[in-house]
Write a structure and sequence with these properties.
about 30% helix
Length: about 150
């Protein structure tokens, strides 16, 4: 499954990047995130709960940030297991460009889904992912502006 998108965040790139690396900010902004802990400057553990169609699942896993050219470009690797629900493995390439005091964020996400979640119709999973991503950026933009 592949997703991509672009969002404009009315804040400086450094501020956006710092907020994107803060587990407390992410926990407040990602609708399905139950828990996130920083293990190192580039590694995290996370637990998410998501309902996709008839499937209600909890996934636990690891997230790693590879700061290729931080804060302008980085890669996010994630891997999680959800018992009978299956497994998820993904890679997101994120670019942050500062333009007139705003940050234009673009991303490309490639994810492999296994088990029950992988058997659900891709359109159903993509629709849920799009709603989660849109909800995240709505909350994240408010967080960056008010934080």
């Amino acid at each position: 499954m592949e997703l991509n998108g672009q969002y404009r965040i009315p804040a400086a790139r450094e501020r956006v990047f710092t907020a994107l690396c803060d587990p407390a900010v992410l926990q407040r902004c990602i609708p399905v995130l139950e828990e996130m802990d920083r293990l190192s400057p580039t590694e995290y553990t996370a637990r998410v709960r998501a309902t996709v169609g008839p499937l209600n699942a909890r996934f636990a896993g690891n997230v790693r940030v590879a700061p290729e050219d931080a804060p302008r470009f980085y890669i996010l690797y994630a891997e999680g297991k959800g018992g009978l629900a299956g497994a998820v493995k993904g890679e997101a390439r994120i670019t942050l460009e500062e333009v007139d005091g705003h940050t234009d964020l673009s991303f490309t996400l490639a994810a492999a889904l296994g088990g029950a979640v992988g058997r659900l119709a891709v359109k159903l999973v993509k629709a849920k992912a799009d709603r989660v991503i849109d909800g995240f950026f709505e909350r994240f933009t408010a967080e960056v502006l008010n934080g």
